[in-house]
Amino acid sequence: MLTTLAVLQALTIVTGVYAMTTELSLSALTSGSSPTEPTASPAEGTPTAPVVTAGPVLAQLPVKPGDGPLPTKGTLTKQLASALGDDALGDRVGVSVIDTVTGEQLYAAGADTALTPASTTKIITCSAALASLGPDTRFSTRVVQGATPGAVVLVGGGDPLLAGPSAKRDGYPAQASLATLAARTAATLKSRGVQKITLSYDTTLFTGTAKAAGWKPNYIPDGEVAPVYALTMDVGRQDPRYRAPRVPNPPQYAADAFARLLAKQGIKVAKSVRPAKAPAGAAELGRVDSAPSTPSSSTPSPTATTTWPKRSCGTSPSRKARRRPSPAAPKPSPRS
């Protein structure tokens, strides 16, 4: 079973990596006309319509010297049919294997049946985010002046990897730190003679629901997911050393931690820390920026992994409010 799942996951990952390393334009995948009106979901019991796909989109790409020979159709069919027959995959599996150079379909099983992808959706989501935002995008967490003297607002910028006070600082690439933000903010406040403040937090960069309708009640406490907010730290984990639990209110949890860090810097913070929208054009008191969406190719990396899949795929560092990324219902099995 594990071998079967590993084979299918590897196929998906290779496809995503190939698209990014060859600088494939995702616009080619979606070049068809977009509907102007939302399409209603078919009524229950309605026969499944055939899936209409575009023609080959990679046929114009040159064959690279390192490309190996394709297996014969018979070999491919035998191996995939055996893997897809594993009971662990359930009885609703669809597969289509296509030669990206010629566009020839090499293998198909249930290819015309519309199915909802599971955790492999993250590969496409992150590829789209990289194509849309670019690999140099950074997510900024800021502190700005509030509407009244002595008021301070912590503004979330969509960086879930923001490191809280208990996070280790030995990861790659280096994460933005809430402690660093507190130190910079405290230094600015002290330079202005401010020693006592009220603190609020702004999560309005994202709009919409923080939880997907398909999430089960155990997903958050079991550490499968965290509510999606523009302000969070340690990927929503209560303790960054452990996978579970995730906190039910990440922005409040992060803001309370920030208040304690300010206190350690000699800034007295009022007890009540509540959500509030930052004033437009408010003066910036402190700021930390995430690592780029993908580490620079010129920067030595001790590991082959990148932090992009864990970052806020589909979010924007713009101050303009954007639709909250729609969280997809995860598989109940532990994440890799």
Give a structural overview.
With 336 residues, this protein is an alpha/beta fold. It has helices at 2-21, 73-84, 121-133, 178-191, 250-264; strands at residues 95-98, 105-109, 140-145, 151-155, 196-202, 206-207, 268-269, 274-275, 284-289, 322-323. The strands form three sheets. Strands 3, 4, 5, 7, 8 and 9 form a six-stranded mixed beta sheet that branches. The protein has a two-stranded antiparallel sheet with strand order 1-2. β3 and β4 form a beta hairpin. α1 runs parallel beside α3 (121-133) and α4 crosses α5 (250-264). The two termini are 16 Å apart.
What secondary-structure arrangement, pairings included, does this model have?
Layout: H1 2-21, H2 73-84, E1 95-98, E2 105-109, H3 121-133, E3 140-145, E4 151-155, H4 178-191, E5 196-202, E6 206-207, H5 250-264, E7 268-269, E8 274-275, E9 284-289, E10 322-323
Parallel strand pairs: 4-5, 5-7, 5-8, 6-10
Antiparallel strand pairs: 1-2, 3-4, 3-9
Q: Specify the biggest β-sheet.
A: 6 strands, mixed
Helix content: 10-25%
The tally of beta strands, per DSSP, is: 10
Coarse shape: elongated
Q: What is the typical, i.e. mean, pLDDT?
A: 75
Order of helices and strands: HHEEHEEHEEHEEEE
Q: Catalogue the unreliable spans.
A: 23-60, 296-336
Strand content: 5-15%
Span between termini: 16 Å
Going by helix content, strand content and strand pairing, the class is alpha/beta
Count of individual helical segments: 5
Radius of gyration: 23 Å
Keyword list:
single chain, 336 residues, alpha/beta, 6-stranded mixed sheet, 5 helices, 10 strands, disordered C terminus
